Amino acid sequence: MSAATQQTVTPPARRMPISFAWLRGQRQMQLGLAIVVGVIVLALAAPLIAPWDPEHATGEVLAPPSGSHLFGTDVSGFDIFSRTLYAPRVDILIAFTSTLLAMAAGIPLGILAGFRSGKVTEAMSRGFDIVQAFPFFILALVLLGIFGPSVRNLILVVAIVNAPIYFRLMKSQAQTLKGRMFVEAARVAGCRDRDLMFRHILPNALTPALAQMSVTIAWSIILTAGVSFVGAGVRAPTPEWGVMIATGAPQMQTGQWWAALFPGLALAVAVMGYALVGNAIANVTDPRKRHA
Amino acid sequence: MGRYASKRIALLIPQLLCVALITFLLVLATPGNPARAQLGSQAPQSAVDALSEKLGLDRPAYEQFVVYLKNTVTGDFGQSWVSGNAVLDDLVARAPSTFELITISFVIALALAIPLGVMAAVRSTGFVGRIVDRCSFGYGLLAGAIPDFWFALILIFVFFAVLGIAPSPIGQLDVTVEGPPSITGAISIDALLTGNWAAFWNHAGHLVLPVATLVFINAAPILRMTRNSVLENLGSPYIRFARANGLPKSQIVRYALRNALLPIVTLAGVLYTILIAGAVLTETIFSWGGVGQYAVQSVLNADWAALQSVVLLGAAVSLLVYLALDLFHAAIDPRVR
After folding, report:
1. Using the beta-carbon criterion (under 8 Å), do A255 and B161 form an inter-chain contact?
2. Interface test with B, best of A147, A158, A165, A252 (most B CBs within 10 A)
3. Residue A41 is part of which domain span?
4. Does A40 reside within a domain?
5. Total tally of structural domains belonging to chain A
6. Which of A71, A257, B83, B138 has the fewest CB atoms within 10 Å around its CB?
7. Per-residue pLDDT tens over the stretch B147-179
8. DSSP string, B30-94
9. Do A138 and B295 touch (CB under 8 A)?
10. ipTM of the complex in this document
């Protein structure tokens, strides 16, 4: 393998006061984190900032952006600015929890499949391969069609679609790591398989999964908005970016651009934040990608 | 090569069986009795029982699976209770439009992204190189963050609502234009075959915005991969050797590109399967009337037979693409065999 994997690993020194020194010079990380934190703070503080109730019809239908409605109103008379602020409460919640679920399922199974080779793990790998053969968006649609559209089901479905990525990553990591000296040493010292896998291999294999996490969150947001856009995910009047874009979609043909434009912009900025963070993590952890 | 190919092709059979099993289980997991759903809530119980028996719903699951397999292999995909047609007929009517849309987008995305990626790799140093790099990075970030359905709406707003140069984003032809008789089902090909130029140009106009959407969103990873892959090869010892020998630059780039092509082809194959999924939303927005829109309607109407077949078709096409990729890899890289 590459020279980078040959380096000795020194345990990071524990510094008690939280230091932000690692952020210095990391422009992508700075911008990405600013967006990620900013969106979460705005969503949490939405009741304080939003001028209108996000699910209250104001009576002004399709009003263009103005002082009282910064982003205008949609066909139902909802204030788009307020709804855009509230939307990440659903979108980010789904993206975050589904990503954590996908990791919780994919990582241990992947380590197991990479560490042990047998009929069970082989079947597992093939199973995840087959799941990946389904076009993800159609699979998500179908699962939602069957289980019914609700936030809980959306979380489960997005997790199912994402789990194979972590499985594959961890499997290949475990396959490379299990032959390494430190694992051999632990084995010779009498370590049980379970501890080999989860105390020795797992911590060393985790980096690519963590870099992937941000990427998965990013496109889980897009996926959630996509299925909600066609009406198979979150339903109106819940404020959610995909639903809001769908509400404003017909007016894009007649010229009232604000109802679909603003939620889409907000979504793109949020996704970009997670993409930047993921990219920065990948750059830091993988020297080959430093210029990518 | 022959042995590898036959082994790889043989693998397709268990793969397809697994896919069929999953689509079968998915529909088995649906709540409610399919026979009741097909007949409506007003139908008498005796009719539901009769249909259940006819569909084999009263038999154990594994027997149902065998029946399902047998039906699928013989082309009997069941009946859509929404359209009232056999699902196979619905699919045959819609699939060509979808493949037309996907394939055109695929070809244009590659035709733009690969040369641009090579250019970006060749011009990777100095001031110009930095700007090119920034642009390709920024474009990649943007294309990855913007949802395709939203981008399509922006295009509709700008080019249809404001500028008025794009045709109405509904369907594949203006309502006033008479379509060509269906030969292949893809309007562009049928119009060409019958020499119906009016329909051809009208259809081409309708293709512009959906294709632009799919290309803008999906060309970015290819561009990035081409740039990185060519760049990596340009720095490799064999290129340095070629350079030291004084070969002209164009020839060197050609050498680098040939070796860089492998990961690009892999990504291109993956891109095609991604476009299958990406077409769902784009078709819905432009009322394209293809398989993607059919899938959405089936989900919203709980039309399980239709849905089951769409999923099966999507997965089967993906598996075939992966098969083609593996064979291609084996053909050009002997280590894979």
Report:
1. yes
2. A252
3. 29-53+69-290
4. yes
5. 1
6. B138
7. 999 999 999 999 998 898 888 888 888 888 888
8. SSS-HHHHHH-TTS-HHHHHHHHHHHTTTS-HHHHHHHHHHHHHTT---B-TTT-SBHHHHHHHH
9. yes
10. 0.86
